[in-house]
Write a structure and sequence with these properties.
The chain has 206 residues and is an alpha+beta fold. It is built from one helix and eight strands, in the order H-E-E-E-E-E-E-E-E. The strands form two sheets. It has a four-stranded antiparallel beta sheet with strand order 3-2-1-5, with helices on one face. Strands 4-6-7-8 form a four-stranded antiparallel beta sheet, covered by helices on one side. Strand 7 and strand 8 form a beta hairpin. The protein is elongated, with a radius of gyration of 25 Å.
């Protein structure tokens, strides 16, 4: 009768503990990076939504030959829910027949954009605190800036990779603010040697 030897396959307790420790280190390292990626992606999504809305308003104004306004959702927007203390509550794009920046009965709603997630802020400077209007010529009624922030800490101060800047010119052109000094915070100018970071989630600049 032949004898057979059997080899037991598996982990020893030491191997298992070592594997779990390594896995824990990897997870701890990966989570902050993963969260940063999600934050950056969501900020880009919100910024693109606003830029798309502004470009839509401009193109519709030119196409229809009538002023088109982008207004935060408040008592003077087409949605008229009174909730829009600030832009992060959403905004409307509508035909503004009498050029008053308010959605009246004679005006036509083109599109409504939904609110941002609760810990994100979207604020316009004093020139566009409530609305911005695009004329049939493609020009805007004013120039101004928007800042979108992940304000989960409630401090209202842009930090690296937590904010986006959107700039609107009188020509009607819309562009994203650049980070010319590469510190993760948008700058108020395009010159790297003299770049000045935005310092607030509520833009004070014109």
């Amino acid at each position: 009768m032949s004898k057979h030897s059997f080899k037991t396959l598996g982990f020893t307790l030491i191997e298992l503990v070592a594997t779990m420790a390594i896995a824990g280190i990897l997870v701890t390292t990966a989570i902050p990076s993963f969260n940063s990626t999600i934050t950056s992606s969501r900020l880009s999504c919100y910024a693109n939504d606003l830029v798309s809305a502004l470009n839509l308003a401009r193109s519709e104004a030119v196409k229809r030959g009538i002023s088109v306004t982008v207004r935060k959702l408040d008592n003077y927007s087409c949605t008229n829910n009174g909730a829009g203390v600030n832009w992060e509550n959403g905004w409307d794009v509508f035909m503004d027949i009498d050029n008053d920046g308010q959605c009246d009965e004679s005006d036509e709603l083109i599109r409504t954009y939904p609110a941002l997630m609760s810990w994100y802020t979207l604020r316009g400077n004093h020139n566009i605190s409530n609305y911005i209007r695009f004329l049939p010529s493609g020009l805007s009624n004013t120039n101004g800036s928007f800042v979108i922030c992940n304000n989960s800490d409630g401090l209202g101060i842009p930090k690296a990779n937590t904010s986006r800047l959107i700039i609107v010119y009188n020509t009607g052109r819309v562009r994203m603010g650049l980070d010319t000094n590469n510190d993760g915070i948008p700058n108020t100018n395009n010159t790297a040697s003299s770049a000045t970071n935005i310092i607030s989630c509520i833009p004070p600049f014109s």
